Amino acid sequence: MSKEISRRTFLKGGIASACTLAISGTPAAAEKKPDIQLLTLIDISKCIGCEACVDACREVNAEKFPDPKKPFPKMFPKRVPVADWSDKQNVSDRLTPYNWLFIQNASVEIDGEEIDLTIPRRCMHCVNPPCVKLCPFGSARQLENGISIIKSDICLGGSKCKAVCPWHIPERQTGVGIYLDILPSLAGNGVMYKCDRCYNKIAKGELPACIEECPENVQTIGPRDEIIKQAQNLAKETKGYIYGEKENGGTNTIYISPVPFDKLNNAIEKGNGKPHLKPVKDTMENANNLAAAMFIAPFAGVAAAAGKYYQIVKTGEKNDEGGPSNESE
Amino acid sequence: MNQNKLISYSYIFTFFMMTISGFGQMPIFKRYYMADIPGLEWLAKYYITHYLHYLFAIMFLSLISYISMEYFLTKREKLIITTSGYVGSLLLSTLSLTGILLVIRNFSGHLFSSSFIVYLDLIHLGAVILILMTGLFCMVFNKKWLEKP
């Protein structure tokens, strides 16, 4: 898969998304918009762990990083955790508000030989992202091209997005954001940060920084349908394994690995800021199934009331019919 | 228990559970120790409060549809809607409409613009707060939603 092909397929989606970005601001239901989601394929076997993507991400997105005001407001109650990464901005071995992409290492055995694999890890950009859908203030949002972003100007830093994310990707920085202007001690706790797929570069038809700077062409970006086909073909050719196509109902990041992902998951270091590679069920599925019942509910209520009315009318008619005969007796 | 009382208690319980599970969508119950109370740990579990909110929304929509239709069919000539009733109905309609739109938003796909979703969230939250205040006002000043003409 050449870089030219990935660039071309990407640009098709990029132009469409740039157009749709330009017309946002009104209820989208009112307009017909192209719905081209951009998917990134990450071929783990190509990654050499040079961290060029990590450096490029940090450089390009530096202007989006938090600039907290210190001292932080006193939090109430005291147990509210303060998350401060401003003195540890150079940390690059995990996700932080200043590091939206990191390289995860795994030593695994292939055909009896021990090899080291390196895996670029960042937000998976779910097709139906719970961080976006369950944010109570609409601070997290999904763009028409499938990229999910957190708007730092209206995020209160409640960290719900991190709690509902199956990979717990977003990271909080205290002392920054709109909560400082509202009730800084009582509500909010900063801003959540994560990979935004360089949405502003994509809107201009450019590639995300991590893809642009990768010397090994580890990543390929393009319209979801096309890239899924490429991923499936590649997995077939290399007898590889796919992660992300079905996880959480489908994500817009797909990994291809030469070893099964359960082995890879066992081999990587997991924990805060270091996401797993386990299978993930669709977190939005149960609630969306319940939603079907919600649309039937008003009809059930109306039908019950109509039934009651029918009974009243029927009883009234019976009484009317029975009345004269009683009188005649 | 007669049917009207059963409907009233069901409505109050449903609205209470919807309010609790709805506020549980915000990260407040853990912060403010409510989820530390034995038996209330679920208040800090977002997916549980999310499912409960949907379940009670199903009951709520059934109940308000039933109550509205029953009034229209059987009580319209005997009882009139008061100003409090109109205000309450308007707020309940706003709450239901914004809730339904937010449920639609949660399906896969990009249906509404992000700024529209922010408004939906704020109007939904505002509507429930106003309903609680209206309910309190009606209880304190004994204002009925329906009365004899």
Q: Summarize this, please?
A:
The complex is a heterodimer of chains A (329) and B (149). Chain A is α+β, with helices and mostly antiparallel strands and 329 residues long.
Topology:
The complex is a heterodimer of chains A (329) and B (149).
Chain A: H1 3-22, E1 38-43, H2 52-60, E2 102-110, E3 113-121, H3 130-133, E4 140-142, E5 148-150, H4 160-164, E6 171-173, E7 191-193, H5 199-203, H6 209-213, E8 219-223, H7 224-238, E9 241-243, E10 253-257, H8 261-267, H9 285-328
Chain B: H1 3-23, H2 46-75, E1 80-81, H3 83-105, H4 114-140, E2 146-147
Antiparallel strand pairs in B: 1-2
Helix pairs in contact in B: 1-2, 3-4
Description:
The complex is a heterodimer of chains A (329) and B (149). With 329 residues, chain A is of the alpha+beta class. Chain A has one domain: 2-Layer Sandwich (Alpha-Beta Plaits), CATH 3.30.70.20. Chain A is built from nine helices and ten strands. Chain A has a four-stranded mixed β-sheet with strand order 8-1-10-9. The radius of gyration of chain A is 26 Å and the shape is globular. The termini of chain A are far apart. Chain B is mainly α and 149 residues long. Chain B folds into two domains: 1-56, no CATH class; 79-149. Helix content of chain B is 68%, strand content 3%. Chain B is built from four helices and two strands, in the order H-H-E-H-H-E. A two-stranded antiparallel sheet of chain B has the order 1-2.
